[in-house]
Amino acid sequence: MRNVSIRALAVGVAGLAAAGSLVLGAPTAQAATTGHCTSALSGPGITSPTLTPIFFAQLSACGGSFTDQGAPYTFTLDSIAVFYMSGSGMLTSFAYHNLIATCTAVTVSNGGLSGSGCVYAA
Questions:
Q1: Which tens digits make up the pLDDT trace of 28-50?
Q2: Residue 35, Cα to own-chain centre: how many angstroms?
Q3: Which of 60, 61, 63, 59 is nearest to 106 (CA)?
Q4: Could you give the CA distance from residue 96 to residue 50 in angstroms, rounded to a whole number?
Q5: Coil, strand, or helix at residue 11?
Q6: What is the dihedral angle through the alpha carbons of 98, 93, 120, 111, rounded to the nearest 10 degrees?
Q7: What backbone phi and psi angles, to 5 degrees, belong to 31?
Q8: In this structure, are residues 54 and 116 in contact, taking their beta carbons and an 8 Å threshold?
């Protein structure tokens, strides 16, 4: 009887160790490509300063270079401006500060960087 309980205990401990290694072995999700831009411009809002899923920035405002390491793309944006038409019909802008943009795609062209499929968080 004693051998059976020692074996049962050993099997139980081995099972817990295996289960623990599965939980501990799972990697945390990390952005494949990260960047930092001091200033950016959101796609135009219609009648309110609503951030759109696209943003544009000069490459020089984002460190001057960009290395694409694949999606997702996560950018720290110090300031992002949105232009929109005010109630009086005047073009107006509003700036959001210190946001994180997570985007599904990025394009670099002619000294500019554009992100698309972006969601924003404070």
A1: 455 589 999 999 999 888 889 99
A2: 10
A3: 59
A4: 10
A5: helix
A6: -80
A7: -70, 140
A8: yes
